[in-house]
Amino acid sequence: xxxxxxxxxxxxxxxxxxxxxxxxxxxxxxxxxxxxxxxxxxxxxxxxxxxxxxxxxxxxxxxxxxxxxxxxxxxxxxxxxxxxxxxxxxxxxxxxxxxxxxxxxxxxxxxxxxxxxxxxxxxxxxxxxxx
Length: 131
Description:
Blueprint (H helix, E strand, L loop, with lengths): L1 E5 L9 E6 L4 E2 L25 E4 L9 E4 L14 E5 L5 E5 L4 E5 L24
Antiparallel strand pairs: 1-2, 2-3, 4-5, 6-7, 7-8
């Protein structure tokens, strides 16, 4: 479980977390977490304090480990079948794609802002705008 987080990298020199292990008996050093992309294309989705992670330390040295977030715990699964990709945010906002139903859902609990340096097109069989 994530015990502490340093998202700016001020403490460890890189964004890192500390992981609590074995019912709180062991606290890891600052370790990075796995992210899908960290090159020219980047993903920023850091684990939060209290989130369950797996600490992978192939050499057995926790200081050289890496945290892997995304483990379900306490019934917090976000879907119920294959073919459904869903991201649910803490405020209730949902981004979902149903591959079987060929449907994309954006249920936003706030404002949406779209920025483009070029043209914006909306193409569909029917487009309803509700003031």
